[in-house]
Structure to design on (197 residues):
């Protein structure tokens, strides 16, 4: 896909996100202006060039068990959803497919086809400081299925029950994302089947 076409595709994806709150509305407006400005939106050189670039996060969610998978990320020193940098010209959804295979050895099964959430966040931990513009996706997964993970990137991976997520040591927007994911899930599924969430 041509870079110009993919910028339009990403722009459309961000435009389609219905904001959870004023914070997300501000992030959406910021990201739309950023994409439309014509600046480079993809990371072109490691570790952090340009100093603001696209990332795809994906949260593995088990509706049946009310659990999510987080990774203990070595560089960020936080419990995070898996994900990675969007390669130049890559569709962020394809980033999720690629990273799910590389980081966890799984095939991506999207619960929602498009990103559910967008954030702009300064990085922390032992990485070159920069800003990540993150598109957040949700994948359906089963905690009982075996999974291998990238031990160079993660200390460990772990399934957390929704009410036991370590928000104090995670992405500052994760709590809001979980709230939005549950609201979205309620609107798509028969809620009585998932009352434990």
């Amino acid at each position: 896909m041509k870079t110009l076409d993919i910028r339009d595709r990403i722009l459309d994806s961000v435009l389609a996100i219905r904001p959870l709150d004023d914070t997300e509305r501000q992030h959406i407006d910021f990201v739309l202006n950023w994409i439309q400005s014509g600046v480079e939106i993809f990371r072109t050189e490691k570790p952090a060039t340009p100093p603001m670039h696209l990332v795809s996060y994906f949260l593995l969610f088990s509706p049946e068990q009310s659990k999510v998978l987080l990774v203990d990320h070595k560089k960020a020193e936080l419990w995070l959803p898996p994900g990675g940098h969007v390669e130049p010209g890559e569709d962020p959804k394809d980033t999720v497919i690629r990273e799910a295979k590389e980081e966890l050895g799984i095939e991506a099964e999207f619960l929602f086809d498009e990103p559910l959430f967008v954030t702009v966040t300064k990085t922390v931990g032992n990485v070159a400081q920069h800003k990540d513009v993150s598109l957040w996706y949700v994948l359906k997964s089963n905690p009982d299925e075996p999974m291998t993970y990238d031990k160079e990137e993660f200390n460990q991976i772990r399934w957390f029950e929704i009410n036991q997520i370590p928000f104090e040591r995670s992405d500052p927007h994760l709590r809001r994302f979980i709230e939005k994911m549950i609201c979205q899930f309620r609107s798509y599924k028969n809620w009585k089947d998932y009352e434990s969430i």
User: Anything to note?
Assistant: The CA atoms of residues 57 and 136 lie 5 Å apart. Confidence is low (pLDDT under 50) at residues 191-197.
